[in-house]
Structures are given as C-alpha cells and as structure tokens.
User: Fold these one by one.
Assistant:
Number 1:
Amino acid sequence: MKLSVIGCGYLGAVHAASMAELGHDVTGIDVDPERIASLSRGVAPFHEPGFNDLLVANQQKLAFSTDMSAANGSRVHFLAVGTPQSSDGSVDMTYVNQAVSDLLPHLSPGDLVVGKSTVPVGTAERLLTMVEPTGAHLMWNPEFLREGFAVEDTLSPDRLVYGVTDDDAGVNDTAILDEVYAAILAKDTPRLVMNFATAELVKVAANSFLATKISFINAMAEIADVTGANVTQLADAIGHDDRIGRRFLNAGIGFGGGCLPKDIRGFAARATELGVGEALSFLKDVDDINLRRRRRVQEILSAELGDLTGKKIAVWGLAFKPDSDDIRDSPALDIVESLARAGAHVTGSDPEATGPATRRIQSAGLEDSVTLEVDHLSAARGADAIVVATEWQHFRTTDASVVANLVNNPLVVDGRNCLPAGEWKQAGFVYRGMGRS
Ligand code: UDX
C-alpha cells in the first residue's frame, strides 16, 4: 500500500522505515531539510539500534520530502509530528495543527489519516472536524515505542490500539489499518478497538503508570537512605509478586527523555482543563519525587567532598537512557549542569551523546567548566568522584581496579544502581548508591 508519514523524528522515521520493511511504499515528510536530506541518503539522523540497517535495506520503498504534496496519492497518512511541552506544562499542539492543515489539500475521499502522536484527550474529535470535509477518515493509533528498542517495538508491538469513530466508517477504517499491519497481526498481536478518547488516554495512562512506578521506587530509595535499607533488594522482593512485577522498579536519578516527563505534565494540565485536575494531582508528586533524584547526587557529593568548587567530577553518561543519543530532559545532563554551576569541573562522557550534549552545554554557557569526551576511562583520570548517570553496558562492566588507578579520589556515586557495589568497594572505592550503600 502507498503510505505517507508526516513527521520524521524518532517516531515517524522509525515508523516509515518499519512500514517499508512490511512491504509498503512509504513517503516520509518533515519540515526539517537536514533531516530529510540525511534520511534520503539512507543515513539515520539519530542513534537507534537497527534503524540505519532498516533504512538502507528499504531504500527502494522509501522516499523522503519536505513538501507536503508528496502525500498525494497515499491511501493512509500517519501523523507522527512532535507534541512538545509548552512553558505552562500543557501540550504544544502547534505542529499537529499545522501538519493537519497542510495535509488537507492533499487528501482524497476515502483516504485514512492515522494519528500516532501523543495528544491531549479530545484532539482526535477536534481534528475530525477538519478532516471530514475532505471525505477522508480519521483514526487514532498511539505508539508505545521505547527509544533504544524503537524498531523492535514498531515491528513487534505488545498491542495495537485503534481509536475509531462509532459508525460504519470506523469499521472500514479498521480493515484498512489491518491491511497495513497485516504482518504484525499475523503474529497474534493483540488489537484493541475503542473510541477516540479511550485510545488517546491509553497512551498517557500507560506513561503515567510507568512514571508512577519509577517514582514509587525512588520514594522507597529516599526511605532506604535514612533507614539503612537496600532499595534494590526491596524491589527484587516486591517484584516477585506478579501483581507488582519487577520491571520499571529500578531506583536511581529518575526518568527523563522526550515522553514520560512531558506526558505526565501534559496529562495533568489537560485534566485540569477538563475540571478533573484532582484526579491526577498525584502526578505532581510523581514529578517532584523524580526531580529530587537529580539533586540527590549533588547532596551526596557535597556530603562526601565538602565544597565542590574546583573539584573534578567525572559523569559517566549524558543520554537520558542507554542505547540512545537523546538528551531531552536527561537527568544525566541536568546533573552535569548543576555540578558545573556549583563550581565543579565536570568531565562528562557518553558513547553516543557528546554531539548533542556539546551544543546544550554551549548554549548554557558552561563550556569553561564542562569537558565532554567519548571515553569514560579518560574522563575518570584525576577525578575526585565518578558519577554513573546512564547505565551503558560498558560502564557496568568496567573493571573497578583499573579505574582506581586513574582517579584522584576513590569515590563513586552510582546514580543508576547498576555497578557491582562489592567489586568497587574491594577496589578501594567509597561506593554510594541511590537508596543503597
Ligand atoms: C517511554 C515509554 O516506555 C514508551 O512506552 C513510550 O512510548 C515513550 O516513553 P522511553 O522514553 O524511550 O519510552 O524510555 P523508557 O525506557 O520508558 O525510560 C524512561 C526513563 O525512565 C529513562 O530515563 C530511564 O532511565 C528511566 N527509568 C526506567 C528508571 O529510572 N527506572 C526504571 O526502572 C525504568
């Protein structure tokens, strides 16, 4: 089938390449000429495992353009533009609104517009009034992909959610999307059909639940720190209860990235608009607990080292999570910046994210106190403390005795509780975890 994907960020670009992998002819459209040029050359504009291979393997079935008229003739048009956070915490709908207005002249009767972006509940109903006069139909099909697993999550999702209108058109639209996802459905992937509002809510409810789970265990870490308990053992023990589950119970410096932080704020803002803000007031606590985690690292360093002025701190990890070069709302980078502002000299290290991090450090005017490099061992040279801020695999398996010979002072703050604490202590380090010591 001929498809268009409007918006070629993490979500759209991976979706476009994955749909080509499923056998469709796909046109990706984005307003950013650099991004489009890179995708057209078959070069991934961001780090995402497996994505570049998919792009190269499907070059014949993929086209990219900055011109919305390239959507002409596609049967299905996926909306995958960004929905960033506005300064008041609500969702900025500028890109979605613009993309839909720009798409309207290129729609034909019977076309299907499929929203994938994460939007405030009520959006699809509103967009329907714009799309319907063209004779095209609208569905909402939220995406649940995780960065680092974007290709896998797109081609083998846990479930497909279809938000449809409550009429015959909705039934026909379901059949068209089934055709698009035929190869995925053939793997017995659960497919749930519901109304627009429910489909929109599924996404933000899922992310709110995940954020709450992380903040819950981080709250337990705060208690563990004052009681001498070990939060990792606590998580292991409660996680054995199937009703709780062990996943997303890793305490540390908290969640970041382009989704969880903005989604909980956007969801709370939307609930307030709808007059039911109290229902989500707990998300403010979830957010507050999360932001406290970032400050906790500095508290530990100050307690151990005193005044941080002139201290050399190596921060391992800049991306918001491993296997990603994404620094959006990264707890790691926030920590780098606040340590630099406290007078420390920070050497940040990340295998993928030094490029985007350098731009952010420059725009923050912190380039005199922050050095960024790819190699974490050279970042550790002469350090008064090491902070592990992103749990890249090679940080976890680094030989502590090698690091002990490089540093000035053997202190490690394990912001992701990912190091073998015993080995680091044996190598002579003072080990401080998050809710465990
Ligand atoms: C998330 C959702 O998982 C995904 O379903 C949705 O589509 C988009 O948002 P992503 O932002 O890629 O995906 O990252 P995720 O793997 O969920 O991690 C989010 C953050 O939580 C990271 O900063 C991670 O380090 C942190 N995290 C995760 C924890 O601090 N502890 C955990 O136990 C798990």
Number 2:
Amino acid sequence: MNDKIASLKSQFEEQLANVLETAQLEEIRVAYLGKKGSITDLLKGMKDLSNEEKKTFGQHVNMFKAEATEKIGAKMKELKELQIKKEIESMPVFDVSMPADTARGSYHPITLVQRECERIFKSMGFHVEDYSEIVTDYECFESLNIPKHHPARDMQDTYYLDNGQLLKTQTSAAQNAIYKKYKDDLINKNIPIKAVFPGRCFRNEATDACHENTFFQMEGVMVGKDINISNLIFFMKTMLSEVFQRDIKVRLRPGFFPFVEPGFELDINCLICGGEGCSSCKHSGWLELCPCGMIHPEVLKAGGIDPEEYTGFAFGLGLTRLAMMKYGIKDLRDLNSGNLKAMDQFTDDM
Ligand code: DAH
C-alpha cells in the first residue's frame, strides 16, 4: 500500500512541475483531491486493511493530502503572480507627453436648460438658490401643508435614510427655508421675495419613457404685497417665450397641490403642431408643463410670513420635461444614460 502512495506522490510532483496555467492546476487539484480524486480513493481503499495497517496508512495518506493541498495552493499563487506580471508587461506604455484626445465633453441638456432658465429669471430680478438633496420630512412635506398620512404623500414615495431624513421628492422642499431666509427683507424693507431653486429630485417609481426615479425641477416663488395670478402668468409666459424663442400661449387649468390655493396646471400651446393637435399633445393642442398656484396661507405661516398681509405664487417647472421638449428627446431615460454620443449633440462648447 505504501508503494501506492509513493508512486502517486512522484506522479503528482511531476505533473505539478509541468503545470503552466491555473486551469490546468485546477484539473490536477480535482484529479487528486476532488471527491473522486486519487487521494480520496486511497482513503476509501483502506476498509480492507487491518486496524494497525489502517492507522499508519491513514497517517501517510493524510500527510500526502496535506502536502498536496499546500503545494497546489503555493503553485496557484505563483501562477497568478506570473499571470499579473505578464499582463503588466504586455500593457502599452503610457506616454505622458502624448497630445490629448481632441474630443471634449459637453454640457448635459438639462444643465443647458437649467442655466437658460436661471439666466432668464435672474434678468427678472430673481435670486437663484442652491438647496440640499437630503432634506427632512418637515421641509419636504409638513411645512408644505402635507401632514403625516395625507394622501398626497402616496404620489411621492421616496428613499429614506436611517436618520429619518429623505431624498427630496420635489424642489418645493426648499420653500420653507427660502421664506425664512428672505422674510426679514420682505417685512422690514418691503422687498418682495423672488427666488428660483433648481434641483435634483427623487421618487421611488418604476421607470418608463416618461418616468424616472431621478429628475430635475426648478421651483420658483414670488411673495409680496398684492401678488396675484396675473403676475404668475406674466412671469411664466415671459420665461417660456425666452426659452423657446417664440411667443408662447399658455392656459391654466385647476390642479390640486396641498401647498397652493388655488392650484393650477399650466399648459403651453403644443410646439410641435402649433395647437392643431398631434400625437405629442394627445391631439389636444396643449402640453402640460408647469404646475403652479397661489401659495397656501399655511405654507406662508410656516415660513414666518403673515398671509393676511402678503400673498405669493409658486411654480414647479419640470426641467427634465422642458429639456425633452426643447431638444425633442423622446425617451426620458436617455437623459440619465450617460451616453455621451446621445448627449453631446446639443452643444459643442464647454
Ligand atoms: N412640487 C410639485 C410636484 O413635484 C409641483 C408643484 C406644484 C410645485 C404646484 C409648485 C406648485 O410650486 O405651486 O409635484
């Protein structure tokens, strides 16, 4: 029996010495140590031996088994190192003095539309504000007249952090902070609050050509003495006519949002068919673009502003939707695809 071990051992050593690749080594491992391997076979054959023989033979086989396992492990390490070395050697040498590729990046269509809107609103005296993507439940819902268990929350499921904060579902989440930031100037100096705040929003939603779990909005508010719906219509119309570089017709329909009263859906005349009716506007001649309304008294109050004395309007412009319309992008998912070929056709300068 011991001869059997010795011959198997020398056969193993010889095979191991000739191995060049990890796959080959794995074959050897299975051939010797696998369930049906030669070493396992040796152990199985022990049943016919006497107890004394079993003891010494078993010891020898186990020693061989341990030795083979160790050697295979060491060989595997050696082969892997060799493989890495070979790969490094075959890599092209990186020439740091080589001139750069002339292809340059470009701005994302949403960035372009956002900057355009910012420019237009700035020219009309609005501040442009940046705001966090992680907000509290108070900012995103409570301060906007959406208490816990309000059905309006159903439409805005989002991603919650362990500490109770959440990824904002709407740029409206910044309203409360904006009111608090500018209210003293409003109250003491009678300077109306005029601000827009673009931002990335998140919703826990299934995606399709018209829905994404990540999208961009630009919220705007104006608060002062005697601000009314005509002011809202004027600013929206002016802004949209600038963005699309033509006179834009708008119409208001009633819409419900807990933080405005009355609330509206602002539609624009379909740019594709000019209002005649086509498949893009579902043959109505109008496209829904921007929900808006007169700020709810409770929302002003939460921002430290007396609704008896001041009024204001708010709107939530869908930047993603605006970019799609401006550039004729049919599938919203293209905007988050990271596909440079699809995106860099909109601009060639950085
Ligand atoms: N925050 C709303 C949403 O994402 C949109 C909106 C509606 C914003 C009406 C407004 C508004 O400021 O007045 O669904």
